[in-house]
Design brief:
mainly alpha, 3-stranded mixed sheet, about 150 residues
Length: about 150
């Protein structure tokens, strides 16, 4: 995880969630971190040491965590397991009130997981436009009035 978290611990206080992010007693809360990042004249040297030290707490009784552990034991290099772990971490960031560092990566992981859930091959591209989407893409029929408006432009 690198410098994303200070430590990872197994928690006995989490009930429903697979994991949560908590901050240290003397670090900034998620809201304070957001406020300080938004300051126009902030001092970047102060920001580096005052950023909250996050602790990832994992719920060992959660079925998601148990299944991830089994998949990691089977194959440590599995890209899907890595994506699932980072999705859990990013989701814990969001639910704890923090901002994502790389929202584009988060969305690409979500899209890969949706493709996996729908059994779509990673390299497969959709060639045909589904019925009903022709109008959205601009391929729908035009009326005579619309054509005359195009002639004016």
């Amino acid at each position: 995880m690198g410098d994303k978290v200070e430590k990872v611990i197994i928690s006995d206080r989490i009930v429903d969630s697979p994991c949560v992010l908590v901050t240290g007693e003397y670090g900034w809360s998620a809201n304070m971190e957001r406020i300080m990042k938004a300051q126009a004249l902030r001092d970047s040297s102060m920001t580096s040491y005052m950023l909250s030290k996050k602790t990832l707490e994992i719920n060992p009784n959660n079925s998601i965590i148990n299944e991830l552990r089994k998949k990691v034991d089977a194959d440590r290099a599995d890209k899907t397991v890595r994506d699932l772990f980072w999705l859990l971490f990013d989701t814990a960031l969001l639910t704890s009130g923090f901002n994502l560092d790389e929202p584009a990566q988060y969305s690409s992981r979500i899209f890969r997981m949706i493709k996996l859930g729908l059994s779509i091959d990673e390299d497969e591209e959709v060639a045909d436009v589904p019925p009903g989407l022709e109008e959205v893409q601009g391929g729908g029929a035009t009326t005579a009035e619309e054509e005359s408006m195009e002639d004016v432009d």
